[in-house]
Amino acid sequence: MARHYLDHASSAPLRPEAADAMVRWLTDGLGTHLVGADPGRIHAEGMSARVALETARADVASLLGARSREVVFTSGATESIATATWGAVRRADASGHRPHVVLGAVEHSAVRQASSTFTDVFGGEVTVVGVDGLGRVDPERLLAQVRPDTALVHLQWGNHEVPTLQPVHEVVAACREQGVLVHVDAAQAVGRVPVDFAALGADLLSASGHKFGAPPGTGVLLVRRGLRLDPLLHGGDQERARRAGLENVPALIGLGTAARILQDPVDGAGSTLLAEEEASRRLTRRLLDGLGALEGVVALGDTDDGGRLPHNVCLSVDGVEPQGVLLGLDQRGIAAHSGSACSSESLEPSPVLEAMGVDAQRSLRLSVGWDTTDGDIDAALDAVEAVVRHLRSLGR
């Protein structure tokens, strides 16, 4: 039976170009014995590893509209978020303030937990701001919570469960005017839509490689030029003393390759990124139109193209339990998801959907990516209708 992977918002398959680049490095080391060489050493092997690492850094910086020196490599968005939060609250504590952090109620669990954990260390406080029925933060409500002792404002670029975009440009501009650090979680945006760190003006931005076809275990924290924060990981001077530990050169070569592929020119689209964005919007529009026509199925979050991420569809499915839907879809070859992106094992009610005031118990998320085809969408449309119809018949 053919499989149809529609869980790109959780993790995307590795792009073949990235895999090939990693294999070349691991197997022949660009023609010499370089496997495992420390890029911090000045021998030939170490210098070759440094060149490969900095090439990857330049490719990532170019994709994100950043300077190479602003790119800190991490193990993923979770570490990047923790590093940004820790650095900001330590900075506030060093200035004599009990750190105060502001965030929206639909932020990822990595943001919520890092904020509460690190502010507790210094006796600080977290203010959570509610959202509307689409999952969007009102920028005026968010900014009204900023105080003189606010160490950091978190705002995601786009949500990880519903496709809703947030008013990042407006919030970043206001925070910069007030001299308050702002971090943007762009894990769902990078590799999906154009991201320009310089134009955005944020202090910190986090991303994860495995979301857009780079290897798992690769991430990025962008740190605005001139901003100095204490590192989360101590023990070495790697990443310009911003993140200790030997860099994972092979995986980061894969990350840089994926970033470069997205910038390749494509006739009629401008770049691979823009071509994939257009394709994703078309495919998810098919899902929205087809599944939205089913009885008791309602799209959640913003469904207007101007207000949503291109790759993600979240639906409320009345009258059935999410476990049954996911198992039924899996039996028909469809990989999908329900609930919080970090609650797969427990399928707990989604805090994002609860914050939106919608049914947090019965959601279905389908997300597309670089390798998704119309055949995958055809299969999903047929399978969801059949599974939901079957499960509802059992309850009669």
Present the secondary structure layout.
Layout: E1 4-5, H1 16-28, H2 44-64, E2 71-74, H3 77-94, E3 100-104, H4 109-121, E4 125-129, H5 139-144, E5 150-154, H6 168-178, E6 182-185, H7 197-200, E7 204-208, E8 219-223, H8 238-241, H9 249-263, H10 272-292, E9 297-300, E10 312-317, H11 322-331, E11 334-335, H12 351-356, E12 363-367, H13 374-394
Helix pairs in contact: 1-9, 2-9, 3-4, 10-13, 11-13
Features:
396 residues, Aspartate Aminotransferase, domain 1, Aspartate Aminotransferase, domain 2, 2 domains, seven-stranded mixed β-sheet, three-stranded antiparallel β-sheet, 12 strands
Major β-sheet profile? 7 strands, mixed
Assign a percent range to the helix content. 40-55%
SS elements, strand count: 12
Query: Averaged pLDDT, please?
Result: 94
CATH superfamily of the largest domain: Type I PLP-dependent aspartate aminotransferase-like (Major domain)
CATH topology of the largest domain: Aspartate Aminotransferase, domain 2
Please give the radius of gyration in angstroms: 21 Å
Multimeric state of these chains? single chain
